[in-house]
Fold these 4 entries.
Entry 1:
Amino acid sequence: KATAGADGDVKFGKVFAYPNPAHSKTTFRYEVEKLNVNISLMIFDISGELVFAKDEIYRESRTVGYLRYEYSWKCKNDRGIKVGSGIYIYRLEMRSGSKSDTFIGKLAVVR
């Protein structure tokens, strides 16, 4: 599960994309347990070119708790054009003040 360490570190819990491989849409599911966090998503093609970026896919202030969140990506680039079949690398980054955590995973898109 996601934790906030004694020194204020922020950490992701479970993170995954489903379905994987994706056809027209995939949903990123992730767990967080930390106050005042901001989570962003970046998706790169296998050559490292950024194809999609979204800041603040999660932003919430709360007092206590452990929550699961999700964000659906329609397998389109930043211009709204469907991405081609292939392997993509996704990067979720959580920030809280000066602390951060990053999760990197692979996703296949099959057209």
Note: The first strand starts at residue 15 and ends at 18.
Entry 2:
Amino acid sequence: TAVVDAENLMESVSRVSLMATEKSYSVNLDFTEKELVIKAGSPEFGNAEERHPLAVKGGPVSIWASPKYVIDALASVGCEAKLRFIDPLSPILITNETGFTGVVMPVRPS
């Protein structure tokens, strides 16, 4: 579980996704104990990476997801979002204090 600023995360995912390959079109959300690292890359254009300091409850997890679905869910949240996840193949629940719940299904990296 991690609490993030939805707007900042949405902008970061949008920027990093520019480097995602057309074939897989996914970004890697790598949650560690102290930060979230968002990564994407392609052989043609190179790699992109952005880091966000935050506290993550639970162990580290690396989840691949469609940037479009992450951005859509975060756009509906408002300012602060809680991301809940279990493992790389489980859905990401994105919630806020008003009761909104969004679900983002992970993808398998190619």
Note: The beta strands are 2-5, 27-31, 35-42, 46-53, 61-65, 80-84, 92-95, 101-104.
Entry 3:
Amino acid sequence: PLLVEFVKRRVFHLSRGDDMLTRTTTSTMVFRRPFHIAGIDHAFPAGSYEVVTEEEQLDGITFLAYRRLQTYIYRRSTGDRLGLEPTYDVDPEDLAAALAQDVIEQELPA
């Protein structure tokens, strides 16, 4: 069976700084196999990753809209490595391509 896990949690953290309203959305992606992301020179191990997207509210328009400022990914720390996992700034399209490749590789015969 095909196993894909992408849990989007709408965990918003709204803040106002420099007269700009921003929000942060946190998601979890689970990769079943090691994967690569364009622009990063090493493979990531399989596992669960937190994906954080920061956006700013656009002013001066008649409807509510946001512009993405940054998306980054990190692996939750476990055991004796607690707090030592780095974060990586990623393009959401590159991240989606890595997840799609993970799905394709799951469908290939072992």
Note: The helical segments are 92-107.
Entry 4:
Amino acid sequence: TFGVPARAVAAGEAAEFVRARPAAASLAIDALFGTGLQRDLEGGYAEVVASVNAARATGLRVLAVDSPSGIESSTGAVLGAAIVADETVTISLPKLVPSPLPKTTETLSLL
């Protein structure tokens, strides 16, 4: 963990965990779903997305992996709710997200 404490959170506790995040937490890594997501986010998943997005207003930075959760990667459509990421990194190959990127991300980087 590179000296950074990490904690696994059960799905039912995730939204509350984000809302009550420690003040020292400055970064969230969004890797909830892969690039094949085809359905709207609902229930607990939508709650987690809303909590992460609300935490951005208090200074939390968000790094998305491949595509922000809730974005359909081939069309860029928002599937019910979507993470607003400060940056998105894609691993290995660029993803087929339309250009310009959806307004849910500010920067796309290729690793």
Note: The chain has a mean pLDDT of 77.
